[in-house]
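Hi team,

As requested, here is the filled-out complex form for the manganese (II) ion run. I kept the field names the same as last time so the parser does not choke. Let me know if anything looks off before we queue the next batch.

— J.
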Amino acid sequence: MNQIDYINQNKDRFLNELFELLRIPSVSADPKYKGDVVKTAEAMRAKLEAAGAEKTELISTDGFPVVYGEKIIDPNLPTVLVYGHYDVQPADPIELWNTPPFEPTIRKTEIHPDGAIFARGSCDDKGQAFMHVKALEVMLKTNTLPCNMKIIIEGEEEVGSSNLGIFLKKYKEKLKADVILISDTSMIANDTPSIDVGLRGLAYMEVEVDGPKIDLHSGVYGGAVGNPINVLCKMIASMHDENFHITIPGFYDDVLVLSDNEKAELNKAPFSLENYKKDLDIDDVQGEKGYTTLERTGTRPTLDVNGIWGGYIGEGAKTVLPSKAFAKISMRLVPNMTSEKIQQLFEDHFKKIAPKSVKVKVTPHHGGEPVVVSTTSVAYLAAAKAMEETFGKKPIPTRGGGSIPIVALFKSVLGLDSVLFGFGLDSDALHSPNEHYGIFNYYKGIETIPLFYRNYVAMSK
Ligand code: BES
Ligand code: MN
Ligand code: MN
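And here is what came back:
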């Protein structure tokens, strides 16, 4: 039987198996779900085994386990190492979901007329990672796996993959491969395939601003004592200038400037600012002066407050001058910035601009390094050809704005290049309420992945 017939005959089962995974709330950030995260790992391992992978196991780390499996057909042939993650972001704010986040439901949308699977993790990344498990099954059942395959699916991507770096060093030999294949990014549209050739890095910080030792009466003391929330807001506001340039000294020192040619290439990707604004329900975009929206998200660093709190936020009004204020601040990094250096620059600057009326604490959270992928490698060309075969159009190389911290480590620790073979859409509401993944995209991925293997082996010869 050929691959397409096998996929068609097993379509419903492929969907139901994904649903089983989506029903387990594998939220890595919230300790409440610890048991479910491990349960998801076990379910993923069982499905990998059932698909025909060998030596499947859960490899423990200091955090959540890594699901491992392999199919070695001939040590002399190339080996593809697949990476994905089975953990998901928290579902909050839960009241904004139209159907419960861990009860997968199919609904049609304007962009997905064939229907989309609504569930946390449907696109990011259970749905996309599971395509690789099913693609393996397809290749094994149709006798078309042309080389060796290894797969790792981790459970801590959404919290920074901090244990995976150690894992890579420890299992360097076991993970020996020729290329990394990952489906955890987006394409431009279902009729406009694209392949990300860049990812941004990340430096995530938490800050605390301490004022008076206790909350004070805002009338008795107001106007005479530094208010930590006022101070924090002013400090944060000062970190961008009127052109939305970041003001931390040295922040841009290592930023790789794109050549005019690279800029022109990047802006060739079809993009409608009008639709972009309409989709997000905003009247205007905002960002660094002198750059287009695609340049801003793909090639420029950022500084964003992710959350800010302090003082009284309960019902009604309470007149209080708060004792403390907090914020979580992330910076997206681009080549050749490094998270360690940026975290240090941020900390030094934040401490320097703090007025004497408060004390500040700065705590770094996770970091991740930026990545660029070559568009001339055999692996990239094999992936591009595979997409061209199934979409009928050459994919456009694009730069994704998100981060996958492990990708830079695949290069620095294992010496391997990655192909970012994503089939989701930016509009699939990753990390947001009502995350979904197109049924078209799910099957298209399962159909396209085996073609990558075939092309990669043929083109490697
Ligand atoms: N899959 C995303 C990253 C992504 C999405 C890249 C779309 C390109 C296009 C990944 O799961 C993610 O969300 N990463 C986090 C990293 C973090 C928590 C360390 C991110 O980018 O915020
Ligand atoms: Mn992801
Ligand atoms: Mn994510």
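Two things worth flagging: The chain has two domains: 3-199+370-460, 201-255+301-368. DSSP finds 13 helices and 20 strands in the chain.

Thanks,
J.
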